[in-house]
Write a structure and sequence with these properties.
The protein contains six helices and nine strands. The chain is an alpha/beta fold. Strand 4 and strand 5 form a beta hairpin.
Length: about 190
């Protein structure tokens, strides 16, 4: 069974645009900033925006460099569809396409998909994604989730990731403390 290389897991986040009207200010960066400054966590993060496949490919290439090894949580925050991410209203990236971009680039990484419905797929497809990318875990939601609830849940999940190296232990403690919310949001963790 694969385990995380350390307890401290910093976050490398790529976020899409939530609204076509750019005057809207929704962003998960506020939650990341909170985790960085909260007294109990102090989780460092890198946050970038992205709205095209090329930008995402470039960000993944950058993320795979050695200098970002301590950023072991790869957080993709986009609108989602079953088996895909909406990079823009007309640009949907399938998990297979994402796996091609990230092939062998996510070793010892946790990929969290902060997007609606993306993991509403067969578990075998997710396992195939893990094998292709080398990730130790893929997590996310199977249904459409409210922005605030899912963002707060992400914070709780990232905090729990700081305490354990083994994914099954993280999942066990998430169920113990936040089981009702996990069910409500249809949160899924698939790991090696």
């Amino acid at each position: 069974m694969k385990t995380a290389s350390s307890y401290a897991k910093q976050i490398f986040c790529i976020e899409g645009d939530w609204h076509p009207d750019l005057r809207q200010k929704d962003t998960i960066e506020n939650a990341l900033r909170f985790m960085e400054t909260a007294s109990g966590t102090k989780i460092q993060y890198i946050h970038r925006h992205c709205s095209t496949s090329e930008e995402l490919r470039n960000r993944i290439e950058e993320y795979s460099k050695r200098r970002y090894n301590q950023f072991s949580i790869f957080y993709l925050a986009f609108h989602g569809v079953p088996n895909g991410l909406k990079l823009s209203p007309k640009n949907i990236l399938s998990l297979d396409e994402l796996a091609e971009m990230a092939e062998n680039k996510l070793h010892n990484k946790i990929l969290h998909l902060g997007s609606c419905e993306t993991l509403n797929i067969d578990r075998r497809q997710i396992k195939k994604f893990l094998n292709k990318t080398g990730a130790i875990c893929v997590s996310g939601f199977k249904k459409e989730v409210p922005f605030v609830s899912s963002t707060l849940f992400d914070v709780l999940y990232f905090e729990m990731c700081q305490y354990y190296k083994q994914m099954h232990i993280i999942e066990k403690h998430m169920k113990n403390y936040y089981g009702k919310l996990m069910k409500e949001l249809q949160f899924v963790m698939v790991y090696q």
